[in-house]
Amino acid sequence: xxxxxGKIVVDRDLCIGAASCIAIAPxxxxxxxxxxxxxxxxxxxxDETILLAAKSCPTKAIIVFDxxxxxxxx
Length: 74
What we know:
The chain is of the alpha+beta class. The protein is about 20% helix and about 25% strand.
């Protein structure tokens, strides 16, 4: 991958608590008390794993940016 991930954002309005991101990257994502995904430690997985987790989200609630702020996904 050319661009390194700089920021991960979860759109709480889109998140339905499917937890597919947690199945792929449990060190990075957790569900909060409202059953919404949150980023707990973005450095605990490599960029490829984080992108796989974002792509697994059925509602595309996980937005991934590179270090320059460019949106990588979706």
